[in-house]
Amino acid sequence: MNVSFRIMRYYAAAAHFKSLTKAAAEMNISQSAISLAVDNLEAELGLILLNRQRSKGISLTAKGRDVLARIQAILDQVENFESDIIGLRENVSGNLHVGCFNAIAPIVLAPILKRLVSEHSAIHVNIIEGNVRHIFDSIHRGEVDVGISYDEADISAGLKTKTLAVVPPHVIIPQNHPLAAKKSISLAEMIDQPMILLDLPSSRQYYTSLFESAGFEPNFVYKSGNYEMVRSMVGAGLGIALLQSRPSTEDTHCGAKIVCRPVTENLRKSRLVVAYTEQGIKRRIVKAFVEQCEAYFTTKESRKLIVS
């Protein structure tokens, strides 16, 4: 079989515009050249791809639609290959707007950005932090190019995501608390303790649902929308808390230490993802960031963020 990329592009254009005349104008060639390319493709494949009607233009046959899907996949691969080769010849540069769920931004974003700019020094990064919905909505609106967050299927619908880690919840307790001697802590043991809730929209729903699904009612005595405030309140002995990703230190901002313990029950985990639009990932600068995210989450350093 001898089908050139040029013929594939001409056929894809004809199928897209449903008109040989419009396709010819778009490709800046004559209509006869487009028509000849389609004829040659049909002859090479031994298939009828187009229905030609003088008054109604052209339409795809069932086989034509099938061939178009395969040709488009090939052309997309060629475009990505060309982009990758350009990336090997040139430094990736430009402005990149990165969104990150504010509870995990200080933990994961800094090391990822360090890797990114050390390899692509001409990238300028603008950081946008917010709750889960804000990050995904900002990507949808085009205000953010790429974002890192826990996934919420109803919010991230329409976006492309790659899973970076699957994160279980864990318990944080004061260093001198009686429960600190245990290897794991059950939900039943937690409800006997005063608790502090990370009071962000998706976080609030997630943590409360873990207790509700087990038939327990937690005793939340304090709430805060600030991740480090929750850790400091626990360190000060005001209660215990459920969190997910942990920083590399057990020190808190108030100077007290906390310890992390896994939950005894096998609770619902969250997917930490990097999200972007289908068009966005075609930009080399977005692809470079996603690659650094994936690379970071293969390191030993990243595995320390998960308590299990």
Task: Please tell me about this protein's structure.
With 308 residues, the chain is α/β, with parallel strands linked by helices. It has a 5-stranded mixed beta sheet with strand order 4-3-5-12-6, with helices on both faces. The protein has a 3-stranded antiparallel beta sheet with strand order 10-7-11. It contains 12 helices and 12 strands. α1 crosses α3 (31-45) and α5 (105-119) packs across α11.
Essential attributes:
308 residues; alpha/beta; Arc Repressor Mutant, subunit A; D-Maltodextrin-Binding Protein, domain 2; 3 domains; 5-stranded mixed sheet; elongated
Topology:
Blueprint: H1 5-17, H2 20-27, H3 31-45, E1 50-53, E2 57-60, H4 62-89, E3 94-101, H5 105-119, E4 123-130, H6 132-141, E5 146-150, H7 153-156, E6 160-167, E7 170-174, H8 187-190, E8 195-198, H9 201-213, E9 220-224, H10 227-235, E10 241-243, E11 258-262, E12 270-276, H11 284-296, H12 300-303
Parallel strand pairs: 3-4, 3-5, 8-9
Antiparallel strand pairs: 1-2, 5-12, 6-12, 7-10, 7-11
Helix pairs in contact: 1-2, 1-3, 1-4, 2-3, 5-11
Helical segment count: 12
Percent in strands:
15-25%
The helix-strand sequence is: HHHEEHEHEHEHEEHEHEHEEEHH
Instruction: Walk across the major sheet and give the strand order.
Output: 4-3-5-12-6
Helix content: 40-55%
Number of structural domains = 3
Computed CA radius of gyration, to the nearest angstrom: 27 Å
Give me the CATH fold name of the largest domain: D-Maltodextrin-Binding Protein, domain 2
Any idea what the CATH superfamily of the largest domain is called? Periplasmic binding protein-like II
CATH class of the largest domain: Alpha Beta
Give a short account of the largest sheet: 5 strands, mixed
The whole-number mean of residue pLDDT values reads 89
The end-to-end distance, rounded to whole angstroms, is: 54 Å
The rough form would be described as elongated
Structural class: alpha/beta
Reported CATH architecture of the largest domain: 3-Layer(aba) Sandwich
Low-confidence stretches: none
Number of separate strands: 12
